[in-house]
Amino acid sequence: NLSDRLERSFKILKGQGRITEINIAESLKEIRRALIEADVNYKVAKSFTDEVKQKAIGQEVIKAVNPSQMIVKIVHDELAALMGGTATPINLKENPAVILVSGLQGSGKTTFSGKLALHLKKKGRGVLLIGGDIYRPAAIDQLKVLGEQIGVEVYSEPDNKTDAVALVQNGIRYAKSKGGTFNTIIIDTAGRLAIDEQMMREIAAIKEAVRPSETLFVVDSMTGQDAVNTAREFNERLDFDGVVLTKLDGDTRGGAAISIHSVVDKPLKFVSMGEKMEALDVFHPERMADRILGMGDIVSLVEKAQEQFDEEEARKLQKKLARDQFTMQDFLNQIQQIKKMGNIKDLASMIPGVGKALKDVDMDNSVFKQTEAIIQSMTPAERENPGLLNGVRKARVAKGSGTDVAAVNRLLKQFDQTRKMMKMVAGGGGAMARMAGAA
Ligand code: GDP
Ligand code: MG
């Protein structure tokens, strides 16, 4: 998958202090390949990676994160920008606000209409659903069942088999006749299995007749490149205002979101991810970028690290480690630093590959509690030099921290091991950095 391949290509970048044209080339190739596999149009993927390269080259690598993470962040931000940058809300200013729902048969229009009705009802709006699919009696029944489930009235005309435009107009008249009960009307329409002139004419006629405040185009994200062609044709006829991407609960990566946005230049507004009425989300370019990258939440990890990690502190610490001057107090500071960054399990699970492994592990910030208590029960001198801790002192620390001498001994042993290990890492890192500097 994309995540693994990126990681592999990023290995090349490890240990590099600066991102250069050469060390980023392989990563960009992987990114491009992966985008194309995720149904992103070739040209879009190409110009996208060019953009990323421009942004990345020459960037200093922040100490707290490695170059690969920085590229992931750049890729993520660019992806989000490509999908519109920010979420675009639907227009509900008119009274009543009329929302026309279009798309192919099976794309998820009726399901989405119900979901949107519930979503808006929860926001306190008075919603009427209009069953505009006059060709299949089952379609009206489907909408009625959904309406009942979510407590939203459905306007339909069981006898009408000829004129969808008239039906929709009747529905709107009905809503208006109810004096303020309905300030929002959602029109579900008939689709066909493929683009079809009669269907297009009908939906265009409905739009012309009712002049909706918002016309949405619903598309099944599983249909890949076809979704792009369908979007283009609907847009040419309807000039819709926004796109709804459905069935994102499937194993699709969501690359269609990028392609559609770049081809029709209309904002994506909602994503539908399941058959339950609650399974609707406002479209967030940022979240979709996460999904396309499929890299856990590495982006927020990078952001957190950037926010919280004091570079100066890090340098000092590294020196101390290398000179074997790491103390209990430093240990305590580190724990507090980690805690400031959030829950340790959440943090660890942001690292690709680690999240799954930790799923069933019982771990949270309370694992630090005992350690903190013990260190806090030590005097400053003891924290600087744990060697001072003889039997009497250990007993005092144990009592002060509400633990026992065995726990104190465990911590001391652990601290010793950690210090040894960190000394090796820090020493090695220093040597590597010197070598890189000399090269
Ligand atoms: P329409 O023909 O465009 O009105 O499409 P429907 O709303 O009837 O949906 C077609 C099928 O897709 C139905 O079986 C829905 O339950 C299903 N469906 C719709 N949206 C989603 C979704 O987001 N996820 C999943 N898994 N199924 C969906
Ligand atoms: Mg339908």
Automatic annotation (TrEMBL):
Its main location: cytoplasm. One of its GO terms (biological process) is SRP-dependent cotranslational protein targeting to membrane. It comes from the Bacteria. SUPFAM superfamilies: P-loop containing nucleoside triphosphate hydrolases, Signal peptide-binding domain. Keywords: Cytoplasm, GTP-binding, Hydrolase, Nucleotide-binding, Ribonucleoprotein, RNA-binding, Signal recognition particle. Residues 267-280 form the SRP54-type proteins GTP-binding domain. One of its GO terms (cellular component) is signal recognition particle. Part of the signal recognition particle protein translocation system, which is composed of SRP and FtsY. NCBIfam families: ffh. Belongs to the GTP-binding SRP family. SRP54 subfamily. This is Signal recognition particle protein.
